[in-house]
Specification:
This protein has 336 residues and is an alpha/beta fold. The chain has a single domain (8-334), classed as Metal-dependent hydrolases (TIM Barrel, Alpha-Beta Barrel), CATH 3.20.20. The chain is built from 18 helices and eight strands. It has helices at residues 21-30, 40-47, 56-60, 63-67, 73-89, 101-105, 112-130, 146-158, 181-184, 186-189, 205-214, 229-238, 246-251, 263-268, 280-283, 287-296, 302-315, 320-330; strands at residues 8-14, 92-99, 133-141, 165-169, 194-198, 218-221, 241-244, 272-275. Strand 5, helix 11 (205-214) and strand 6 (218-221) form a beta-alpha-beta unit. Helix 5 (73-89) runs parallel beside helix 7 (112-130) and helix 11 (205-214) runs parallel beside helix 12 (229-238). The longest helix has 19 residues, at 112-130. The model has no long low-confidence stretch (mean pLDDT 96).
């Protein structure tokens, strides 16, 4: 199986974590405040996480350099286009990109709706030119407070026709799912499905709450689902998909090592496991590399890889007609 040329699907990729280093350098040069580094190789030393960190929170601090790149609507459009271009170069034919309007717009005082216009313009142009089906997910950043979450819910409902889902992300330990039951309730009437970052930095009690109280259809990472047999069974029986990201999970200290990663075991226990990059720009990786890690380090055989990609196609929040079209054009190889 040639993983590089293989058509692939990805559910968990942050737009803010997919900014090219060269683009970060150019943003600063064009703004008249060039960074001390002059090459992407030099910038990587402080803009990428290449080794395990002590915690998720430490990894999140590395986002600040990329966050500062969203300075104008024009740059947002370009970064969005480049994200799709990079997906296509990696052979990804169906993908979901997620972004936090508050995280993206706050540093330079941009308005959320024009920023959404720019994201959509860049993504749609990239999708047309490179034959990638892309869905957009709005993220509420938990550390910005409940008011920001409520505002993001309002934004998502207002932009419903241009979004496929909603996500809760950011620091996890201080923000249990039960805090968001009321705030996220309007998403049900809007028929906007929810994925949420839980089980990355906490034990299985938070994934359980997210499934039972928030009705999530997917969990971002969900690594700790494998720590409790009852929660594993709950995720399996409810058909909850886990958006697992092996390299990220090691570097954020969600797992102690690749050898300790539960993805292979959970897949064989009937849980809907998928393999994703999380933040390819932040970690210096791509989806081909993550599937290679799954094969070479996690014990996935060819059938496991097929199942993980099939799980991603089935669990995608993109509409069924779009998924059927992409399947017919790119994923016939999944059929026995």
């Amino acid at each position: 199986m040639d993983l590089r040329s293989l058509p692939k699907a990805e559910l968990h990729r942050h737009l803010e974590g997919a900014v090219r280093l060269d683009t970060i350098l150019q943003v600063h040069r064009d703004a008249g405040d060039p960074l001390p580094e002059s090459t992407s190789e030099e910038l990587a030393a402080r803009a990428q996480v290449r080794a395990p960190m002590g915690s998720l929170e430490e990894v999140l601090s590395y986002f600040r350099i990329a966050q500062d790149s969203f300075r104008t609507y024009e740059w947002i459009e370009r970064i969005s286009y480049e994200a799709v271009e990079d997906l296509a170069a990696d052979g990804v034919r169906l993908a979901e990109l997620r972004f936090s309007p508050d995280f993206m717009c706050r540093p330079h005082g941009l308005e959320w709706d024009p920023a959404m216009d720019a994201v959509v313009a860049g993504v749609e142009r990239g999708a047309r030119e490179h034959d990638v089906a892309v869905g957009l997910i709005a993220i509420a950043s938990r550390s910005y407070g409940i008011e920001s979450v409520e505002r993001t819910v309002e934004f998502a409902i207002r932009q419903r026709e241009r979004l496929v889902g909603f996500d809760l992300a950011d620091e996890e330990r201080s923000y249990p799912p039960r805090m968001y039951v009321e705030a996220l309730a309007p998403l049900s009437d809007a028929q906007l499905p929810i994925t949420a970052h839980y089980g990355e930095a906490t034990g299985p009690e938070f994934p359980r709450e997210a499934i039972e109280l928030l009705g999530v259809r997917r969990l971002g990472h969900g690594v700790s689902v494998g720590q409790d047999a009852a929660v594993t069974a709950l995720a399996r029986d409810r058909g909850v998909t886990l958006e697992m990201c092996p390299t990220s999970n090691v570097r954020t200290n969600a797992v102690a090592s690749l050898e300790a990663h539960p993805a292979h075991r959970l897949l064989h226990e009937g849980v809907r496991v998928t393999i994703n990059t999380d933040d390819p720009g932040l970690f210096g990786i791509d989806l081909t590399g993550e599937l290679t890690v799954a094969r070479d380090e996690l014990g996935f055989d060819e059938q496991d890889l097929r199942l993980a990609i099939e799980n991603a196609l089935e669990a995608s929040f993109l509409d069924e007609a779009t998924k059927a079209s992409v399947r017919a054009r790119h994923f016939r190889w999944l059929s026995p």
